[in-house]
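Design request, tokens follow.
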């Protein structure tokens, strides 16, 4: 099955399989591109069905990180890592430190951070074995939980999306459905409620729902994402795991805008065209959810929250530029975003061929 994944040209520079039997570590690190700099991307700890499923995920996620970092204006390439297992049962200090050793062995080509199933405290442990890690705790001099600016960036992208569709970036009175109110989703709900939006949420975790309802009693709750897709919404915000938008979901969806924090929201290529045909604006996920990577990348030069927040706020302008290019060229926003990212990944490295005398 693994050979089948590599039967197509993934475009990756490097894929490393990591295993340590004593700790139970089984991980894959994928470096898609280092054209703009070291490949930065988080570590996902997840109970994949098998190694092939993990490989498919890490290849897609690492490519998305390259495009995300390019669009965010960072001098960083794109990579990702996955650890195969249940983080609630399998995570240990020894396993995380073993993983850190593998990250260190890449010599800085890959810089890791948090993702699904990993937290700032985990990155503090990983950092005991490698210096190529970010997203660390405030106590260790890091940026802390990157969910803060991830949610803020999605909010900025949503403002740009709403402005593109309705001519004003106002969310007051708009009905917005949030699928997944975990690390990022519940923070996004905070922004939306403060902006005067009518919010509807769903989540597989009752604890997550209870936390949102405790903070915002006026928020409505529906049973599942399928119900949210059929709901009378202005904006649909997928904020859980990816692949939520397939052909069936795209046909069911009643919202005019899709803008959320989840990675790889489109189940496969072609769904973006179906959304376009139905008059639904899809804000590319790797564009609007870049606030988190902006936050952790700022840590590499000594973290300053206000500076990082200003940079994340520029995602509003980037989203507007993507939507304008899409309209000018008659293509879906995903295609326009891809073109902008590819242009930057091609043009900036070319400048390094200009000889600069050493000091």
């Amino acid at each position: 099955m693994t050979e089948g994944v590599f039967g197509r040209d993934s475009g990756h520079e490097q894929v490393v399989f990591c295993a340590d039997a004593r700790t139970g570590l089984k991980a894959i690190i994928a470096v898609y591109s280092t054209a703009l700099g070291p490949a930065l991307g988080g570590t996902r700890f997840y109970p994949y069905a098998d190694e092939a499923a993990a490989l498919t995920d890490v290849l897609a996620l690492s490519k998305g990180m390259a495009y995300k970092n390019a669009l965010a204006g960072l001098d960083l390439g794109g990579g990702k890592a996955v650890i195969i297992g249940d983080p609630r049962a399998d995570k240990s200090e020894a396993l995380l430190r073993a993983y850190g050793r593998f990250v260190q062995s890449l010599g800085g080509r890959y810089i890791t951070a948090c993702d699904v199933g990993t937290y700032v405290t985990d990155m503090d442990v990983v950092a005991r074995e490698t210096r190529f890690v970010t997203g660390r705790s405030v106590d260790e001099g890091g940026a802390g939980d990157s969910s803060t600016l991830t949610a803020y960036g999605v909010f900025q992208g949503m403002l740009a999306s709403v402005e593109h569709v309705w001519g004003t970036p106002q969310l007051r009175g708009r009905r917005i459905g949030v699928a997944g109110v975990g690390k990022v989703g519940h923070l996004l709900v905070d922004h939306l409620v403060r902006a005067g939006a009518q919010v509807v949420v769903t989540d597989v975790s009752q604890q997550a729902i209870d936390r949102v309802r405790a903070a915002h009693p006026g928020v409505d709750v529906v049973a599942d994402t399928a119900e949210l897709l059929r709901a009378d919404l202005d904006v649909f915000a997928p904020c859980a795991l990816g692949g939520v938008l397939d052909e069936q979901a795209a046909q069911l969806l009643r919202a005019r805008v899709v803008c959320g924090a989840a990675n790889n929201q489109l189940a496969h290529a072609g769904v973006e065209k179906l959304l376009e045909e139905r008059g639904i604006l899809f804000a590319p996920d790797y564009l609007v959810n870049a606030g988190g990577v902006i936050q952790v990348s700022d840590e590499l030069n000594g973290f300053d929250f206000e500076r990082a927040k200003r940079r994340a706020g520029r995602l509003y302008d980037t989203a507007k530029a993507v939507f304008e290019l899409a309209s000018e060229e008659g293509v879906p926003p995903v295609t326009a975003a891809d073109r902008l990212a590819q242009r930057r990944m091609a043009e900036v490295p070319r400048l390094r061929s200009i000889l600069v005398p050493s000091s």
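Comment from the thread starter after seeing the answer: thanks! The CA atoms of residues 44 and 92 lie 15 Å apart.
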